[in-house]
Structure formats: structure tokens, C-alpha cells
Amino acid sequence: PNAHQQADKTIDSVCPYCGVGCQLTYHVKDNTILRVEGQNGPANAGRLCVKGRYGFDYVHHEQRLTHPLIRREGVPKNPVDLLNTEQVHTAFRQASWEEALALVASKLKQIKTTHGGNALAGFGSAKGSNEEAYLFQKLVRTGFGTNNVDHCTRLCHASSVAALLEGIGSGAVSNPLMDVDQAEVIFVIGANPTVNHPVGATWIKNAVKKGAKLIVADPRRSDLARHATHFLQFKADSDVALLNALLHVIIDENLINTEFIKTRTEGFDALKANVATCTPEAMAPICGIPASELRAVARLYAKSKSAMILWGMGISQHTHGTDNARCLISLALITGQIGRPGTGLHPLRGQNNVQGASDAGLIPMMYPDYQPVGNTEAQRRFETLWNTPLSSTPGLTVVETMQAILAGTVKGMYILGENPAMSDPDLNHARKALAALDFLVVQDIFLTETATLADVVLPASAFPEKTGTFTNTDRLVQLGQQAIDPPGLARQDLWIIQSIAQGLGLSWNYQTVEDVFDEMRRAMHSIEGITWQRLQREHAVVYPCLHEGDAGQAVVFTEEFPTHSGKARLVPAQYRGAAEKPDVEFPFVLITGRQLEHWHTGSMTRRASVLDAIEPEPTALFNPSDLNSLNIQPGDKVSLRSRRGEITIFARADSCTPQGNVFVPFCYAEAAINKLTHAALDPHGKIPEFKYCAIAVHKN
Ligand code: SF4
């Protein structure tokens, strides 16, 4: 499209990428998006990053799916050599919607009748709307008859949410990101907002310019570290050691908020006993930060009038991710740095709707609004609302589902908009599992790596092709509006979910997105006060919003916590380290993550012309001294190998990556780094350890 052409319409919506939730305007001519412009939304005030501004023409890409596809008789599913796009017609034939939907319904029914509902599972998407997430989990729970429903939150902040629910009774942020403007101290740990939440990072940098003190803690030096008062480059799996040292100093030097601890928390004595021996001197050799620096940071955080903690996947994607988050929660609680503007806890949500999808119940152990599966009262409530008996057994998480497929207990799956054949850890194992399913239906906009292993592929609508609500990292419910029509026979996702539900015999009859949203309001107390009309008028409303006219609460926990006692719970954690350590055969630590120009498994951004032109090739980032000692030049091809798999990739010099570590983005299918990652899980959040495993490096 020519960006200088005159648009014939403009549509206000939100960005489809990260959890910051920037509002934007699509400029459209003849069903083509010409350009995107930042809107004056509450999270972005007109700003957009490179992805939001230039990452839109994937919707017009020639590889868009435009017809339902059915795998041809006798074509095997090959988990080792996935199909490429050119091979699609040899493996699949085009079908009508009637034929494809009938096949999906009959196969799912057959598996349910023969093996029971728990032989089925569904992965929904944090890229879909709240309404899609809500209907998807309702379909799995009421149509499949199981709680085996999950999505990429399991690979993202599941451990943070486990710790937050346990500690303060709510898995969402306590304060919006913009609150950094009111913080005296900002503590960013295990997050790289300049890359992953770029507009959010601009607010942090602005706050620093106005005088806020910034503490950045990360094994890799991020761009944000340039603005930091203190930068702690700690060893990659030593978060708990570092944080326990900070807790020790604060308690030992009596920098605690005694009144807050007494009136608002439980469990202080156990926490104090747990960190009694975690002196900075004892923890320094483990985390690699000098004791004096640990003391200085602890004092700065605890003594400030208002201090805010923000964290990302560097905290959560560990087998000790829940423990990492427990320590951060304890830091805020013992100092009383929560419940006021400019304070609190902010796990930076990754996907644009990972908060909303989790809120809507797209998780195996919770109904909508975090009502626990297995709680009799919650079960009765949803059985009444949905007019169907429900299973009281919590379902399988993402990685557990893969294990269950290979164990033969899960036989059929419905995957909407997720790409586990790229995003799961130990990919060779995950792809083998997907290929082993008796029946797999995938709903997506491209023939993703996961879709190549499907029996039926359903062509879905891209973000600008539909209307729905999306909840950003700040708990802001925002309205995404349809700007263009889907191509060919591609359909709205809500229509597809409802059609499958009807095929399974459910008498659903949602006419509009608004119908679904209205039911969600009845199911979810937190958004009860948000009307569709208000969303159309204001475009963004923060929850909790308990009654019509309620302004919503941007800052929560001002008086009490949503726990049984109203008090928060301090939970001690002990340093354990990573599940797989480097050794002689695999001497390097692999850290995976994202890069500025690409999004997650790359299915959208690698088909966005500007973004792919900037970053077209997969690269592994090495400290220059490691390249030197391995006799590797930047640009050389190297092979990376772990106990689980091997890839070939280009080497890149990066002084921000510490010696002995290698950083690789996970968005490149031709060098799928998750073939190497470790599927060991955090015992509470069931999140895999994407941020640490042992690898070997060889020059090709
Ligand atoms: Fe989109 Fe996030 Fe960039 Fe905003 S910061 S434009 S929401 S990717």
C-alpha cells in the first residue's frame, strides 16, 4: 500500500502487539490499510513503537489463509520436517465451511464419546479478544466437557500470577505503568521494556528525566540500564539470592514499615527467619553483585516515599519463577510500597490481551474472574449461568497437555491463534506430540508451524478485521474496532467458535460481540460496571469497575487486599538455581527472549514488510570476548546444541550479553531456538525455564 494515498476512512482501534495497549488509528482505502497513526490513548498519549506503527501489512500478505483446508488422505504429519508454504496444496485440499465444520464436529464428538471429555483439549489465544477467549473456554468446558484449556500465559506470567494470587489475592497489576511518573524510585527487574514494551519504556525514561531514581536488574544489560542510577547485572538464575539479600538489609537495618506489616500483612516472622542468613556478603558470590551495591539498592528502595516494581519474563520464566515473584511481593509489602500512586507491583504483560484472556477464564484451573475450578460455589454459579454440568477437576496446562498427548490420554485438540510448534519448550518433543494427535483443528490467519500438523485448518480474521475488547497490562479494557474485511472465505473468530459449539450440539445464538460481552459482565464481577455503550464512547475503562458509572480503580489495594482476611501474605523463598546447569559438554547458558522488530513466533511480524526488512535473519547474541575465544566472527554461522536439539544460526556480537551466556530470539522458524530449551516446570505456575538451559556452541 502507498502510505501517501488519501484514505477513504479512518478507524480507531488498539495495537495488536504488546500489553502496553497503545491506541491507534487505521487509515484505510479500498479494504487496504494505508498507514497507522498513534491515538491519544491513556497508555500511549499518541506514541507508537516500530511494531505498532509499521507492523500492519501482514494482514494483506499473500500467504493469508482464505479457504478452510482439510489434510489429504494418507499425507503423514511429519514433526521433523514441517511443511513449507509451497507444499500446502500437496498436503491439504480446499474445502467448504460446511464440510470442514462437519468434519471438526464429528471428530471431536467421536473422541469425546469414545474416550471422554478429558481426551480433548483447547489452546486459545492472548491475541484474540476477551469475547473470543471467553467463548473459547466456555466451549471447552461445556462442549468438550473438560477444563483442559490454556493459552500462552502459561509461557509468560503464570508464575507471577501464582505468587500474586497467593500473596495479595489478585493476579493483575496494582498500579498502571503510567504511575512511574509519580514514583520516586522505579525498580525494573527481569524486563527489557525498551524492546518489549517500548512505549512503556518511554514513560520510565521520562520519569527519570524528571528526577526519579531507576534501579535496573538483569543478567543482560538493556538499553534502559543507560538511564539507571544502579544497574545490577546479576547471574542468570540467582534472582532469589539477590532479592533475599535486599529483604535481609531492609529488615536488618529496620527500614521496614512496621505499621503496614502489622495491619496489612501476615507471615512476617517466617519471612524474617528465612532471610536472616541471607546477608549481602553471603549472597554476593551467588548473584555476582557486590554486597555494598546490594545494601545501597535496598536502602534506596525502602527509604523512598514511593517506589514501584516492574518485572517481566526474566523473573517469571524460571523453575523458580514463583519464588522470584514472591520475593518482589515481599519487598513491596514489608516497606509498605503498595496501595498508593507511584508504588506497587507491575508484572509487564506481554501479549496485547494476555491479561484479558486470563481474566476471561482461558486457564485450566480458573473459571472467568479467577473463580477456582474445584470450588463448589464457583462451579454451581457457572453451571447455572451456562446451564450445563461442569467438571470439578482442574485441567492440564500447556506443557502438561503435550505430555498427555504422548502418554495417549489427550487425543484431540482445537488450537486457536497459538503456535505451540514454535513457542513451546523442547520443540522436537512438542511437535512430536502435536503430530501424534488423532485429530487437530487449527484456526489461524497463516499456515503456522502448528497448522502444518493439523487435520483441519480454519481461516480466521486478523486483528484489524474484527471488533472486540482487549485488556492491557494496566487492566484497561479497550475497544478494538474492525477496519477491513477478512480475505476470501476467512471468517470472524467468534463465528467459527460458535459454529463449532453448535456442531457439538450447544444451543448458542450470539448475534453480536456485544451479546458475548454482556454475558461476560454477568460472569465477571470485576467488569460488571462496564457497558458496551461506554466502551464505544470512551474506548477505555479500567477495572475493577463494579457498577455503571463507576470510574474504575486504576490503583488498587488502598485499604485491603482481596484475600480471605483482607491481609496480604508474605511467603518466604529459598534460592534453588536453574534446573539444568552448564557443564563441560554444554558450557554456555542459553537465554531466550524477544527483539524489538519481531513479535513472539514471528507469524505476523515476519510477514510485515518493514519489520522483516530491518531484522530478516535469525541471530544469536554473544559477548565479543566469547566470540573471540571461540574464533567466531560476527556473521559466521554457528551451531547451538543442547541435550534436546540443535540449530544453525548467525553469530552477532553484543556487549550487553554477559560472558558465558548466549541470547537468542524465538521468532525465527528456520532457527527455532525452542528446540533447545528445557521443559522443566515451575512447580506452582507450571511455566517452563525459557531463561536458562545449558548449550554447546560450535563454529560451522
Ligand atoms: Fe504496540 Fe506495544 Fe509498541 Fe504500543 S508499545 S505500539 S502496544 S507494540
TrEMBL record:
Annotated keywords: 4Fe-4S, Iron, Iron-sulfur, Metal-binding, Oxidoreductase, Repeat
Domain named 4Fe-4S Mo/W bis-MGD-type: residues: 8-63
Record flagged with keyword 4Fe-4S: yes
Transmembrane annotation, as ranges: none
Keyword Iron-sulfur among UniProt keywords: yes
A GO molecular-function annotation: formate dehydrogenase (NAD+) activity
Protein origin, superkingdom: Bacteria
Entry's EC annotation: 1.17.1.9
UniProt family annotation: In the C-terminal section; belongs to the prokaryotic molybdopterin-containing oxidoreductase family.
Protein name: Formate dehydrogenase subunit alpha
Organism: Limnobacter parvus
Residue window of the full protein shown: 213 to 912 of 912
